[in-house]
């Protein structure tokens, strides 16, 4: 059975250059190696981000997805938003207005709440059947 | 004889270079920035010279791109302007047009001159629909001695001349982009400085566009610009002289100012780039990109610089005075 740990929320430093990426990864790296890591990165303080910073975000996302977890970005500062758009990675990440929204999104639809025996399109076929009969 | 003094932005001159650099593109004097191959201040000077002025003096701290003009590092711009005004007076000029450049103005100088003559006022000031323009017509013969020129112009009650031509106040980066788009869509008289290779696509001399790159009209590719393969330049973008857009980058509704390098695989939209400074007009964010792989000042090789210099000397239609 798969289990997941707590949701980790971390503040991304104001300037994300090569040096800061190294420091940040020392802190975040071990958390990514857990089982099904669930990470929220608070980007509200980001004022500048080099390509090393964008690369780090992508590497983190790759790591968590490999371990069946997820990484979400929250409270993006306008600067962070512009840089991610500029580098064409804005759509790669799931982003949220606040950290609370991002945390909540991890628990939005528990897997066991979704019925596994009937496909999602079953209702559509039912409705089509009703329409056919009516006509 | 009619003379003209075009004064650069004094507020920009007063700032120290460090704070100006920190402020990035937000505090630029847009009239001195190359727009579609030539700075608006240079275009105004040219237009005045061809229309009716016997002499045109341009006094700026930040020289307009690609133009030879009188620049100052020590004396204040206002002092130099006052000195030039005194020279005109001494030389017997009947009328002097004083322009504190900030705005791009398409002025019918002859009409303003005749209005100024009819009014018999010492000073006539041009007005646009959205307020006054820093453009005055003055009679130096009756101008009082020892009064600072600019201060007096701002205090004097002038005759009001309503300019019917196109005016863009160039107060900010949005106005600068508007000027570029207005030119592309022929909403003003400003014409891109280059040859129109396809409808509404202009190329400056020495522009290199890779075969696999796409340029969608309207667009301007300036002098000695290099557009690499797989790039897309679209939605009213202009890439000014000596800039480079690298592999696969998309430039949309943006202006790339002279001598800028824009890196590989980027999505540049609704922005103005000047070297390592990026101003995003949609998010209203001014960024200094410290990563030279992404954006930087474009350096020109020795050979390129030589060919550029010869090109500039050939294209120099305007000298500092006379």
Overall pLDDT score of chain A: 86
Distance between the termini of chain A: 49 Å
Global shape of chain A? elongated
The name of the CATH topology of the largest domain in chain B is Spore Coat Polysaccharide Biosynthesis Protein SpsA, Chain A
Number of helices of chain A: 5
Share in β-strands of chain A: 15-25%
Task: Determine the N-to-C terminus distance of chain B.
Answer: 12 Å
Helix share bin of chain B:
25-40%
Q: Most extensive interface: pair and counts?
A: A-B, 14 and 17 residues
Unreliable segments of chain B (pLDDT under 50, ≥5 consecutive)?
11-22, 308-322
CA radius of gyration of chain A: 19 Å
Q: What number of domains of chain B?
A: 2
Q: How many strands in all of chain B?
A: 26
Q: What attributes does this structure have?
A:
heterodimer; A: 135 residues; alpha/beta; 4-stranded parallel sheet; two-stranded parallel sheet; 5 helices; 6 strands; B: 322 residues; UDP N-Acetylglucosamine Acyltransferase, domain 1; 2 domains; 8-stranded mixed sheet; 8 helices; disordered C terminus
Which helices and strands occur, and which strands form pairs?
The complex is a heterodimer of chains A (135) and B (322).
Chain A: E1 7-11, E2 15-16, H1 18-32, E3 38-42, E4 48-49, H2 51-66, E5 70-74, H3 78-86, E6 94-96, H4 99-106, H5 122-134
Parallel strand pairs in A: 1-3, 2-4, 3-5, 5-6
Chain B: E1 2-7, H1 10-14, H2 17-23, H3 40-51, E2 55-60, E3 70-71, H4 77-90, E4 95-100, E5 104-105, H5 109-119, E6 123-128, E7 131-138, H6 149-155, E8 159-162, E9 167-168, H7 173-184, E10 195-198, E11 201-203, E12 208-209, E13 214-215, E14 219-221, E15 226-227, E16 232-234, E17 237-239, E18 244-245, E19 250-252, E20 255-256, E21 260-262, E22 267-269, E23 271-274, E24 277-280, E25 285-288, E26 295-297, H8 302-315
